[in-house]
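Person: Please comment on this record:
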Amino acid sequence: MAGKKLKPSSPLVSSSFRKKVSSSYYLRSNFVSAWIIRLFFLAFFVALLYLFIYEALFYYKKPQSVLLGRFLNDKIQFEIRFKNIRLPYSFRFLYEKPCPKPTKLLILVMTRRNAFIQRNSIRKTWASDALNDTVIRFLIGDAPKSDARNQKARDEQIKLELEFKKFGDLIFLNGITDNYQNLHLKWHAALEWQQNFCKNAEFLMKTDDDTIVHLPRLDRWIEHKFRPALKQNEATYFGWIISGVKPIRDKGHRWFVPKSAYPYEWYPAYMQGATYLASAQAISAVMRHVHEVNGFNMDDIVFTGILAKLANVTLFDSGAHFRVGNALHANEKCVDGIPEAVALYGADSLAQFEEIYDKLDAIECAKSKA
């Protein structure tokens, strides 16, 4: 049998030898398995580390317009909590950290679902001059349930989804129907979003989708006038103050408010709702008292009037800056070389947005007499 190799299972091989060989195979097998397991866990750890480093170095440095598909879904439930209204809802928006860096100004735009022209006009005109520490978001509610089988409504939703992914600046309010009667619900949700996802914003501006704002000029007025005013009261609203208004009790009127919602004869003073500015402290203050008041569809009266009064929020008269309508004076007033006019409203096409914004931007301060 010279030169012939014997197998461990051969009867010519002793049992002790077979045991040694089997033990050797077993140990070698365990050794290899252990290393395979170690390599698997090492690869898993390296993959996790890579993802973490990639996220930190690249994800938040990309322009937001190209970050597609990253959004908080409707798993986190919120609730409208007026004294007379309880309504669950959720948010859907891109980016886990919509305000990842120090934010001086958050602008929340109340917009209708079908206002595609207005939103794009805002992006192409005054929003394009936003400073780096400014965040702009558009608030959109649900389509009416009655539109579920409406082809036009379905096409509108498809357009909204494309807009959502392309620009990343929409906030969907799931559970709140988008209509005029629900403006107070939309604004409640808007402030809740700010409190939870952009609380580091120093100032919040409320605008409508027909508004034109000169953002560089607004920034100068924040530093020149509005921030110094906070020394008197950190919780302050800035805007065009309206006073001496009675509730409308005519059920056929769009601004009808029943006595069950507001029983008093007069509304408190409040801010004209097209555009106004609020300090972060003002928002926190009014949100602490929301559950104590009845909600109704006059959102400016509810939040800048009734709640502001209850929360001891100051109304700072800034009508010279936040105008009613889109007209300018022949000789616009300036202070320290800064034109007073900051915001106008009343545009519904790109041409009108461009015309009004150019007019606002072109203001020249009248020369003072020697």
